[in-house]
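Q: I have 424 residues here and want to know how they pack in 3D. Can you give me a structure?
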Amino acid sequence: MNEIDKLKKKNAELESELQILKSQILFNKEKVKKRRKFIKNVFLRIGLVFIGRDLRKSYIELFDEWPNLSKDKIIVFSANLLARITGTTILGIFIAFLPTLLLLLDSFLLFNQNQLFRLQNEQISKQTDKITIQTELLESNRRSSYVFLMNNVLDQVASELKGDWNGDKIKNLSPEITSRIIALSHAFKPYRYLEKGRLIDASISPERGQLLITLLSSGIDSVTLSIIYRNGNFTYSDLRNTNLENAYLDFINLAGSNLSGTFIYGTSFKYAILNNCDISYIRTYTKPSFISFGDDGSMISTEMNPDTILFSDFSHAELKNVNLSGSTLYGFNFSFAQLSRANFSNSTIEESIFYISQAENVSFDSTIFKRSYLHGMTNPQALGNAILDSMTWYSLEYYFSSQDSSVIAPQILNYTKSDTVLPG
């Protein structure tokens, strides 16, 4: 019995339990209705006998003897009257407390009814969750069937790369295979699937992520990759905890994707679209290099071999509403990048460039900048809660000239008045 049959069986059991609960609720309602009818009849009978037979009889006898009243009749009438007054007093006390007793009784019944309703709602909620999971799993199975098609296409890719189909000794692909890859990327749709026994919160496509990682690891040339990126669909890709070292991702649209925990070093995201991505806790190398920058943000010297200084390039990229919190960013180039509403909180940014980057509504809360270049960053007031360590005076001078006196200044450490050289 597969997972879907088990879910259907469980669904039938939940529906049966729901019918039993509904029957119990109807039975309780009829029981309460009969009890209230009985109480009403009791009160009617009490009203009819409120005067009492003995007092009524003695009053009639006393009235018949009027005005020649006997002593015995007066005594009997007085005794019956006193007994009735005493009885009505006790009855009055009981009646006075009766609403409270009825209220307590009604509250008890209402509490039991609410408990049944709560149980019913819990069962309905569980049933709804099971139906949702069942629907998502059915869709997941349908979409995952494309994986077999992807394996076939990737086998053809490997064959063309190995055989050098064009005879030009370049790892490129034929238009036919390229078109199949593009079509496949559109066929893969984001969906929710079970992870650790529960559905993930947002729809995402593991297949698109797998396809992209496979293409990158195949060593395909950048021209072919650019064609695939521009015409394919890699939005909402699941790229968590993957390795994108030295990957070529220029002009790709990864909007809505999850890259949390990804290893990024020497990766090129020029003109890429990463809006609404989760890039939190990304990993990279952290090797000291003592970089120097020119006024335009270009690297002009280093104490290490320049070839060993490899930036992850996000220049001109769109990173709106991106989550980069908790990350360690070493050697990242955000020149001319659109960073509106990005979250860099609790990150460490070292030897990186933010030359003329758009930083409206960006969060740098508790962010640590080390030996980085910030000249031309729009809205430098966003740095109010950051720590600037070993920065260039050129960056700080621009910051001070743009700073509003009403905005909290960042904590500035170990700065130098050198125009270009970052201190080691």
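Q: Anything worth noting?
A: The chain is about 45% helix and 5% strand. Confidence is low (pLDDT under 50) at residues 288-310, 418-424.
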